[in-house]
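Sample A.
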Amino acid sequence: MIKKIFFAFVRYSGLLRVWVYINRDKINILMLHGVIDHEADPSWNPLWDRLSRERLDRYLGMLSRYYQFVSLDDAVDMLSGNKRLERNCIVLTFDDGYRNNITHALPILKKYGVTATIFVATKFVTERSAFLIDRLDYALQSVKINGRKISVGDSSSTIQAASREEFKKSYSDLRTLFREQYQDEIVCTKKLNELSEDLEKESGKSLSDIFESDGWSGLLTWDEIRKTNHTDAEYGSHTVDHYRLGQLDTAEMSLQLDKSKLIMEKELGEVCKHICYPVGSYNSETITIAEKCGYISGVTTEPGLNSKGDNLFSLKRISFPTKGGDNECMLHLTGLQHYLAELKSRLRA
């Protein structure tokens, strides 16, 4: 209750507008994934939340009172000094390349004059396959899973699915355990796919059966990407296999960055400028290789605002919340909530 009162006070007292004014020369980059309502595709209900169209519309409307929407291309030009820095700029980026970014989100983006950047993992677009996070989600929900113990390396995880919230937490914990047990990113991915395959054999069902028509997991095709490129959106690389780059050796990291860029350029007939690090995983070597490959920027999952002169290969982004009240979400989306959390942490230290 105290937090809700505080959020409301900050928003309606004018302090939120003061915060935006103070940071008028910084650029706010937002991070989104899927945009779809359960009513739009009730065939199943994924365990990780997507943003509803109503919520996207409502918050873009609120943000438009504080910011002007610009493209990532323009934002990078401003941050690098190649273009005059405009005030109160905000950018929308979508990770993964879900088809619902165009079918569900695009009409709302057009309403507010937003040109978003969509990052695609080339393997999944070319091979027409679902991301592992969606494949395993669907597979788990297709079998009797509550109370089942799943072996993971020399450990195990028990799936608690008596309630929706328990199931969500168990799914998140399971993926975390896999990453802890298999430090090698390629091995970890292989093991997760093997688990998905075992569950699919058990149920006789697979997300691949409905993938192309599925509103939740379906990805854009190259034809759809070409059709909407520049007219409705911009596109960047999200690597080939959606591996966590910071967990790869030099050779594999180079392959992921270089090959995805070349594929994007072949399919779109233009230079691919921007890279999005899957799951926000990167390191100094990632930046060095990305620069050598010819990218001009890289976006992370680290929260915060971006200033002129910042490293263009470690651009901060603020996640677009799928839940929460309007006042809290506006503090979050403007970066104020993150700033206050950091300030509180420093004061306690």
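Sample B, a different protein:
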Amino acid sequence: MSTLNGRILVTGGAGFIGSALIWALNRRGLSNIVVTDILGSDEKWKNLPPLQFADYVEAGEFRTRIAAKPAAFGEFSAVFHLGACSATTEKNATYLIDNNFNVTQELAAWALAQKARFIYASSAATYGDGAEGMDDRSEKIGRLRPLNMYGYSKHLFDLYAQRVGWLDRIVGVKYFNVFGPNEDHKADMRSLVNKAYQQILTTGKVGLFKSLHPDYKDGEQKRDFLYVKDAVEMTIHFAETAPTAGGLYNLGSGEANTWLTLTRAIFAALSREPAIEFIDLPETLRGKYQYFTQADVSKLRSTGYTRPMTPLAEAVRDYVQGYLMTGRKLGD
């Protein structure tokens, strides 16, 4: 039975995946949604005007008020906790622990107490360099070694939820390399598609990182690229058609594509011949760079998720031509 029949909370709802999720809920005719975020001084607020929702609350105020009075905002049937610091280069470990670990802990306990479905964003960054595989079966997670503090802050909650026995009642979704509309505000954390589009407009070419790994030639490092429209369908699935599933789930395309393949698809969407140069990997990323990611989505499929993944070239074309070239947001 769907858990989308009551009020829905979306944290991080002005952000990239959060706003896309609200868009997908709106397409289902759902608008009884409370949105929380930290709007700050960037321009992610621009993702909100085309969307339909019942209320907006700053995340800090929401946290304070439910701590003092759990019923302060009434009851919810589903909680999508997508709010987090997603910067893989963030150095402030204290900030990351509070924002990504403590808040998730508090919200999960609160949601479980009121019997709301709780779905939260973990991350493929928890897998580190992939030496221990990218297996989303929860018995494997103790061996994972994230490469950066962001990944570790996500990993800590996965471990905590397992330790206290929550994982069979909640869902942690491990997003791989998500790209698509509504990511403009993410600065250096934007996808290559977004960055490359701007580079092509200004310089006519795209810079890709050189490889420092003997097994990968320049531009042939591989990632699992997932279109945001697919990512939110997978996420909503756990509240809509698999409301009793629990545990950690990889959300990806299930395919590993090279940066060269992705970049050529961007040029193709613009009807231009590829012009690619290779640049040095920044010092800040050395030793912390994933050379290969690929989601095993068999566990997701086992819960009854049957939608096909959007082919990479088709997804890139939809994003470039439908949004980047037009300036549209999801819902416009």
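Observation for Sample B: Residues 93-113 form the longest helix (21 residues).
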